[in-house]
Amino acid sequence: GNNLITSSNHLRHVDFITNLPSGAGKISHLNAVVLGEASASEQADLVLPSQQFSSQALVPSHQKYLEMYMRSIQDPAGFWSDIASQFYWKQKWPEQVFSENLDIRKGPIKIEWFKGGITNICYNCVDRNIEAGLGHKVALYWEGNGPGFDDTLTYSQLLHRVCQLANYLKDIGVKRGDAVVIYLPMLMELPIAMLACARIGAVHSVVFAGFSAESLAQRIVDCKPKAVITCNAVKRGPKIIHLKEIVDAALIQSAKTGISVDVCLTYENQSAMKRESTNWQEGRDVWWSDVVPKYPYTCEVEWVDAEDPLFLLYTSGSTGKPKGVLHTTGGYMVYAATTFKHAFDYKPSDIYWCTADCGWITGHSYVTYGPLLNGATVVVFEGAPNYPDPGRCWDIVDKYKVTLFYTAPTLVRSLMREGGVSFSGCFLSVYCCFLMIRDGACFYEVILLIAILIFITITQYVTRYSRKSLRVLGSVGEPINPSAWRWFYNVVGDSRCPISDTWWQTETGGFMITPLPGAWPQKPGSATFPFFGVQPVIVDEKGVEIGGECSGYLCLKSSWPGAFRTLYGDHERYETTYFKPFPGYYFSGDGCRRDKDGYHWLTGRVDDVINVKGQGIYAFVTLVEGVPYSEELRKSLIMTVRKQIGAFAAPDKIHWAPGLPKTRSGKIMRRILRKIASRQLDELEDTSTLADPTVVHQLIELADC
Ligand code: WT7
Fold it and tell me: What span, in angstroms and rounded, lies between the C-alpha atoms of 417 and 261?
């Protein structure tokens, strides 16, 4: 097999089994599993939004939702045109444009929305809001890695910064349609760089600044950028990461395949590292602060077609070569803005914080474009959410009076676990005990006090902060298990804030299945119902739609404005990967169950691509006959992943698996691998359908070797 691990989100949100290019040809098969699933009984409860919340919500009832939803399905052109008209178009799209382009029932797949319409997304994110009187409104709050480092930009100031950079990029010859790679941490310069590219019609490709030099080089070689924008270094928690060195190595590597980049614009991130100690290649490397501030505060907009490319974002693929997911301008703009507005029930007074990095699609649609298109105030956070302690998120929530908080289940779980012990709490506990013992308290009194203090200490990382500002919570990236959902709801949101569990993908551009807070009761762990214009269907192995209560493969019928248009440079792979598996549908790669009330429950990836986010990666590795398994090999496998993909993707555990539990038809039974990985050996259940049940015993024996 040629299966492997590559990338994904913030923290250790790691995706995918795809190409492990090496182990020097020693691996014949590698498999990985995700731990933890919800039990059926946990999935039954209904959690209702409060009357007060619903009455003020944009979509206040299920009834209203159904009305809007029906229209979006029956008359997509009318529905989306009405919404699109709220944006600025230099020239409106021709009316008849929708008729044939939304059909994905037959190839070749060519999705187009608002084609012929002329607009610019940067103009709509910034200039349009200033014209509407929001010039003095805060666009971005920046919170640094270390507490105390922060900054603010109003919409007017944001425009100035964007224009200066846009002017510089034009000056060095970046033109409409040219690619620019952005390898930056969560500084304000990251959304600024995205917007500057959009302003001049350049195509940005943000690469998460946690990817290795090799991954970065691979992306540079694929999209051949005119420039790379980076910074010298960044601090994540207490650790310093030398980003410029990674870029240097990537540029050496890409030059070997004949792709050279003329300009490496480098931001001096002073809180992490001074410029003097940065490696420098004269002629190619340019300090941001030496050039960009010299440019004017205004820069004319490059008006582009709705179908002109806006950005490329690479996601891992099952054959190893990353897929350059291409999004275009008009449809993406309308979709990112509308999904943001409804899924968070956005009000102009909201302060919004999404913990995702702009290196992922979440940071594109829901840090930069979606919120800014709505004129929202966005918190951009550079650091690690548990640094300097696990209370940091709530500290930030209180500091900026965050009302909408959007994060990933992996973070929720880790904060839930680390609810843990704080130093001040420990100190206080010990001191009180000391006082009591000194004053002659009895044994039980001391025990009682200790118990109370432990309780206070455990919950205080969250409860010592007010969090009163919070209104809506959001979750993305993987199914949120009901116990984490409840903790998020009860403890973080004080049982007051609806949770939008948003199911979507890099490819979909925006939310596909998500609660609309206020419109209907939630079930902990369910993404609930489709967004406007989205028609999810569940199909069986043969691609036949199944109705009612069922489970199967999640597909989508017809197109929606935010859909990706192609895989860069490989339209055939686009069709093969997404539209061929179940003809007539877009195949998501996810499994899904629909319950008797029509709620959707995502069950994870079903293809050879899997999400391993948050809990850790457990890899079953099968070696080529005759190659011995050794500690050295184990280490080198882990190192290989670190080097080829990035440290965040490295497996936590390697389990030597001479054979894998397969059914007679050859399907690997991941359920069994999962149980072995989590050592729930008494829950293996029936293994008699396996082609060779002894494989299981063998695996158990090798578990701790
Ligand atoms: C895959 C897409 C979408 C931005 C982050 C990841 C999983 C995402 C949920 C959710 C269950 C989810 C799916 C999907 N996923 N959100 N709310 N519930 N699963 O983007 O890297 O393109 O990954 O993430 O498996 O296919 P991505």
Answer: 45
Tell me if 703 sits within 8 A of 679, measured CB to CB. Answer: yes
Which of 428-432, 555-559, 569-573, 683-687 is predicted with the least confidence, judged by mean pLDDT?
A: 428-432
Strand partners, 522: 47
- Torsion, Cα 457 459 461 465, to 10 degrees, reads -120
156 Cβ partners below 8 Å, 6+ apart? 130, 135, 136
Q: What digits encode the pLDDT tens for the residues 621-659?
A: 988 778 888 999 999 999 988 888 788 778 889 999 988
Q: Please work out whether the CB of residue 504 comes within 6 Å of at least one atom of ligand 1.
A: yes
- Tell me which residues are annotated as active site: 607
What is the distance in A from the centroid of ligand 1 to the CA of 477?
Answer: 4
Quick check: bond before 583 cis, omega within 30?
no
How far, in Å, CA of 617 to CA of 31, rounded? 10
**What is the spatial distance between Cα 594 and Cα 587, in angstroms, rounded to a whole number?**
17
Q: Please check whether residue 658 is in contact with residue 627, taking contact to mean a CB–CB distance below 8 angstroms.
A: no
Report the residue among 34, 476, 648 best suited for mutation to probe ligand 1: largest number of ligand atoms under 8 A from its CB.
Answer: 476
Hey, which of 365, 485, 505 would you mutate to test ligand 1's pocket, going by the most ligand atoms within 8 Å of its Cβ?
A: 505
Res. 585: pLDDT tops 70: yes
Whose C-alpha lies nearest to ligand 1, atom 24?
Answer: 477
| Whole-angstrom distance, CA of residue 298 vs CA of residue 635 | 53
Residue 660: the pLDDT is: 86
Q: Which amino acid is at 353?
A: W
Buried b (16+ CB within 10 A) or exposed e, 361-389: bbbbbbbbbbbbbbbbbbbbbbbbbbbee
Q: How would residue 318 be classed by pLDDT, with cut points 50, 70 and 90?
A: low
Could you please report the per-residue DSSP string of 124-160? IIIIHHIIIIITTSEEEEEE-SSTT-EEEEEHHHHHH
**Six token digits for residue 163:** 């224009």
Q: What count of other Cβ atoms lies within 10 Å of the Cβ of residue 443?
A: 8
* Residue 26, pLDDT score: 41
Task: Note if the bond before 348 is cis, omega within 30 degrees.
Answer: no
Task: Report how far apart, in Å, the C-alpha atoms of 19 and of each of 9, 22, 28 are.
Answer: 18, 8, 12
Cα separations in angstroms, 102 against 233, 312, 508, 584, 665: 44, 22, 14, 12, 37
Query: With the C-alpha atoms ordered 404, 407, 411, 417, is the resulting torsion angle positive or negative?
Result: positive
Question: 18-76: per-residue pLDDT in tens?
Answer: 223 333 334 333 444 433 344 455 556 899 999 999 999 999 999 999 999 999 999 99
Task: Tell me the backbone φ, ψ of residue 537, rounded to 5 degrees.
Answer: -130, 150
Lowest mean pLDDT segment, chosen from 353-357, 368-372, 418-422: 418-422
Under 8 Å between Cβ of 23 and 8: no
Indicate whether residue 613 lines ligand 1 (CB < 6 A). Answer: no
Average pLDDT score over the chain = 88
pLDDT of residue 28: 36
Please, which pLDDT band fits residue 549 given cuts at 50, 70 and 90? very high
Task: Say if residue 431 is exposed, middle or buried (CB neighbours under 10 Å; 0-12, 13-18, 19+).
Answer: exposed
For residue 666, is pLDDT > 70? no
Q: Is the pLDDT of residue 271 over 90?
A: no
Are 641 and 212 in contact, with CB atoms under 8 Å apart?
A: no
